[in-house]
Amino acid sequence: MTHVLVTGGAGYIGSHACKALRSAGYTPVTYDNLVTGWEDAVKFGPLEQGDLQDRACLDEVFERYSPIAVMHFAALSQVGESMQDPGRYWHNNVVGSLVLIEAAVEAECQNFVFSSTCATYGEHDNVLLDEDCPQMPINAYGASKRAIEDILENFSASHGLNHVIFRYFNVAGADPEAEIGEFHQPETHLVPLMLDAIDGKRDALTIFGTDYDTPDGTCIRDYVHVMDLVDAHILGLKWLENGKGNRIFNLGSGTGFSVREVIEHSRAVTNRVVPFTEGPRRPGDCTKLVSGSVRADRELGWKPSRSTLEMMIADAWRWHQNGHYDR
Ligand code: UDP
User: Where is each NAD-dependent epimerase/dehydratase domain found (predicted)?
Assistant: First the structure.
């Protein structure tokens, strides 16, 4: 069996990656502390419960499975929270990743696929972002991810660790078979919050800021379907297996939608009213984050096939109605 160590495999994106790995013939070994992940999302390979900062536990898992690669998803990922409690982000994301990277190098597991974020770019005046844009994060979440990118670069230079870094734009949608989906506790992301509001499971959605310098005053984001995103990870893994070396790729659809546009699409897809109110800006939010890169397409051969807002919302809605984790 060819094992891949998937940190955060019990989380939203990690669990979808495990499904994709299994379909591609690998055995995903989930390493997750289950603080924000769900045990019942681990369906495609074994679960090893442990913390990123627990070096002894990591060493034991590397020893037992001899994974050919690490896919590192485990992280705290809420922009708002990172502004209130940056220390948690630096400890969990940066220190935790450092411990993991050291354990991987020591275990001679030299292929590393890392989940980074477009939040590392920060504010850029109305440009489409490519991988060479300066990284000027405006929130602690983005800063923590940029720091991990730096650690990877250092460890590549000194220890020959090969890495592919994916900078995600806004990930949405769910497994179309609804085996797994997006569920955070607490939830802070736009699409699941909106579906809960549509369903009456929580109060009206609050739009965070209507005075941005955009056509309708609300923030613009580039949404990418989680299934397309994890497909890129399989291509990234093969890239490393083929010895193609270190590379950074944006993963986005290249199209931006405002919060109001997402609300409008959700109304159309679900055929239900979306209750919402308008509120102040959320600290740490950029005005516009849209990918302008074709590198993943050109070099990895990545062809997103589900990254329309309609499909993302329809798949998320299907999961929302059918899928449940015990909570
Ligand atoms: N957003 C919003 N209300 C919410 C949650 C999010 O208006 O309750 C907006 C947020 O300001 C951002 C976009 O929706 O412009 C996407 O936010 P999310 O938290 O889903 O992802 P992020 O862009 O922070 O990674």
Answer: 4-252
Interval between CA 190 and ligand 1 midpoint (Å): 5
Beta-bridged to residue 223, according to DSSP, are 170
pLDDT in tens, 224-282: 999 999 999 999 999 999 999 999 999 999 999 999 999 999 999 999 999 999 999 99
Which ligand 1 atom is at minimum distance from the Cα of 189?
20
Find the DSSP H helices in 107-225.
140-159, 190-198
Tell me the average pLDDT across 53-81.
97
Which of 12, 78, 259 to probe ligand 1 with, by most ligand atoms within 8 A of CB? 259
Q: Are residues 232 and 215 in the same domain?
A: no
Burial of 105: CB neighbours in 10 Å, binned 0-12, 13-18, 19+:
middle
Q: Tell me, in angstroms, the distance from the centre of ligand 1 to residue 223's CA.
A: 11
Count of structural domains within the chain? 2
Range of the domain at 143: 3-172+223-251
| Cα(301) to centroid(ligand 1), Å | 30
17-26, 184-193, 317-326: lowest mean pLDDT where? 317-326
CA angle 110, 113, 114 (to 5 degrees): 125
Tokens of 109: 């597991």
Q: Specify if 178 maps to a domain.
A: no
DSSP structure class, residue 309? H
Q: What is the DSSP string of 218-245?
A: S-EEEEEEHHHHHHHHHHHHHHHHTT--
